[in-house]
Design brief:
Largest sheet: 5 strands, mixed
Distance between the termini: 14 Å
Low-confidence stretches: none
Order of helices and strands: EEEHEHEHEEEHHHHHHEHHEH
Radius of gyration: 21 Å
Shape: globular
Number of strands: 10
Number of helices: 12
Helix content: 40-55%
Strand content: 15-25%
Structural class: alpha/beta
Amino acid sequence: MKYAAGLDGGGTKTAVTIVDETGKTVKTSASGAINYNGQDEESVGASLQEIMESIALACGGIENCAEICIGAAGVSNPSVASRLAGHVRGFGYEGGLHIVGDHETALYGAHQKAYGMILIAGTGSIGLGKNEAGQSHRTGGFGHLIDDEGSGYAIGRDLLAAVVQANDGRIPNTVIKELVYGQLGIGSVQDIVGFVYDKLRNKKDIAALAPLLSEACAAGDKAAMRIAEKSAESLLQLVIPVAETLSLQEGSLAMAGSVLLKNGFIRSIFQEKLCSRYPKMECITPKSDASMGAALIALNRLRSE
């Protein structure tokens, strides 16, 4: 029996799915992050060692794993892919190794096939599509400093902006202020400035505020509803170029990420906008996760050998 393994290298953990040559799931597990954007070389190496040992155990020896597919952030940088490959090969793995962007494995997992569209709005945001002709198009995903519109980070930033704007009178008072103060354990705009510009602060700390938007929207807060509207419109703009470039106006769009899956206000506004633009486009929730998507990519490569 030969096996295939898929890795989804997220920001805080790596999800692993192993399937046998018939497609049956043999094992799923989680390990440490393998993302070079947030981890050092030693930490990535330790996580990959744990993962490779787990794969070897599940397959009755690493030589029985014929294909591994890794979906990870930042692999458009050739050095990232080569460093990951170096670690994997360093553990004695000689089988097929395929390293792709984590959005590609998410697309495959969402549709359980190579084509379709996916919109991911979590800490960051990105759109991706592939059509049956083999063409692909990506939108967004260029990081929080210049992009990631409609994401959890963008929402968190806009919530903080609403607090300071209400404080100085640019917008009316908003319930967002007390929600933000409560979550951060602070009591003034000066504290917000200290929080945001702390050198130890990262984008995940800002994105962690995003769930407060649902509560503020439920209270009917106008500033919150404007943020939800802005987020939904930004996410729609990620879909339009994908649908138009690939002629998928009547295709299937998988919605993924905490913003779309957990914020009912944004999801509702987004779907309304999408339906108005593309009445025949179908919105779906992902059929499986990105680690399964990676495993399916690996399995297809195994079967084509």
